[in-house]
Amino acid sequence: MIKRPNILLTGTPGVGKTTLGRELALRTGLTYVNVGELAQEGQLYDGFDEEYQCPVLDEERVVDELDEKMTEGGMIVDYHGCDLFPERWFHIVFVLRTDNTQLYTRLENRGYTGKKLQDNVQCEIFQIIYEEAMEAYQHEIVHQLQNNTPEDLEQNLEQIIQWTKQWMSDHN
């Protein structure tokens, strides 16, 4: 029986998943996993995308790498995609959203340019990640959170911490 919940933080690159996830892990004691970092450390790639100038994730190997930890529970998973993960893994899914102007600036500051920058901003405008989450998971576990300001971040942290406490109370 899982004693601690598994949480997915997803959304377009630049919406604040990593900042939220790391702080959430500090405040809850759950284990934070940034899938991009996990892939880099384990070289879990399946080629290189010349157009976007980035490695292509080997989704099957990532799922294999995480499966045992997810079964144990208590995981916060951070990734900009969500439909690669088994539905059974997560008790709740948070799709972070950010104002397009702020997102553009954040991505530009990361060195995104051209098609990569435009495609990521369009992904946010058209709610692509939210739609993916709604297709991949039960609708009642998928929630959108605005993450534009430090105040939003703090409010999101408090909301997820309260949800986590309630889940643990209900399941232990």
TrEMBL record:
<keyword id="KW-0698">rRNA processing</keyword>
<dbReference type="InterPro" id="IPR027417">
    <property type="entry name" value="P-loop_NTPase"/>
</dbReference>
<dbReference type="Pfam" id="PF13238">
    <property type="entry name" value="AAA_18"/>
</dbReference>
<keyword id="KW-0539">Nucleus</keyword>
<keyword id="KW-0690">Ribosome biogenesis</keyword>
<comment type="function">
    <text>Broad-specificity nucleoside monophosphate (NMP) kinase that catalyzes the reversible transfer of the terminal phosphate group between nucleoside triphosphates and monophosphates. Has also ATPase activity. Involved in the late cytoplasmic maturation steps of the 40S ribosomal particles, specifically 18S rRNA maturation. While NMP activity is not required for ribosome maturation, ATPase activity is. Associates transiently with small ribosomal subunit protein uS11. ATP hydrolysis breaks the interaction with uS11.</text>
</comment>
<keyword id="KW-0418">Kinase</keyword>
<dbReference type="GO" id="GO:0006364">
    <property type="term" value="P:rRNA processing"/>
</dbReference>
<feature type="region of interest" description="NMPbind">
    <location>
        <begin position="34"/>
        <end position="57"/>
    </location>
</feature>
<feature type="binding site">
    <location>
        <position position="16"/>
    </location>
    <ligand>
        <name>ATP</name>
    </ligand>
</feature>
<keyword id="KW-0067">ATP-binding</keyword>
<feature type="binding site">
    <location>
        <position position="18"/>
    </location>
    <ligand>
        <name>ATP</name>
    </ligand>
</feature>
<dbReference type="GO" id="GO:0042274">
    <property type="term" value="P:ribosomal small subunit biogenesis"/>
</dbReference>
<feature type="binding site">
    <location>
        <position position="110"/>
    </location>
    <ligand>
        <name>ATP</name>
    </ligand>
</feature>
<comment type="subunit">
    <text>Monomer and homodimer. Interacts with small ribosomal subunit protein uS11. Not a structural component of 43S pre-ribosomes, but transiently interacts with them by binding to uS11. Interacts with COIL (via C-terminus).</text>
</comment>
<dbReference type="GO" id="GO:0004017">
    <property type="term" value="F:AMP kinase activity"/>
</dbReference>
<keyword id="KW-0547">Nucleotide-binding</keyword>
<keyword id="KW-0808">Transferase</keyword>
<dbReference type="GO" id="GO:0015030">
    <property type="term" value="C:Cajal body"/>
</dbReference>
<dbReference type="GO" id="GO:0005524">
    <property type="term" value="F:ATP binding"/>
</dbReference>
<protein>
    <recommendedName>
        <fullName>Adenylate kinase isoenzyme 6</fullName>
        <ecNumber>2.7.4.3</ecNumber>
    </recommendedName>
</protein>
<feature type="binding site">
    <location>
        <position position="17"/>
    </location>
    <ligand>
        <name>ATP</name>
    </ligand>
</feature>
<keyword id="KW-0963">Cytoplasm</keyword>
<comment type="similarity">
    <text>Belongs to the adenylate kinase family. AK6 subfamily.</text>
</comment>
<feature type="region of interest" description="LID">
    <location>
        <begin position="109"/>
        <end position="119"/>
    </location>
</feature>
<feature type="binding site">
    <location>
        <position position="14"/>
    </location>
    <ligand>
        <name>ATP</name>
    </ligand>
</feature>
<dbReference type="GO" id="GO:0005737">
    <property type="term" value="C:cytoplasm"/>
</dbReference>
<dbReference type="GO" id="GO:0016887">
    <property type="term" value="F:ATP hydrolysis activity"/>
</dbReference>
<dbReference type="InterPro" id="IPR020618">
    <property type="entry name" value="Adenyl_kinase_AK6"/>
</dbReference>
<feature type="binding site">
    <location>
        <position position="19"/>
    </location>
    <ligand>
        <name>ATP</name>
    </ligand>
</feature>
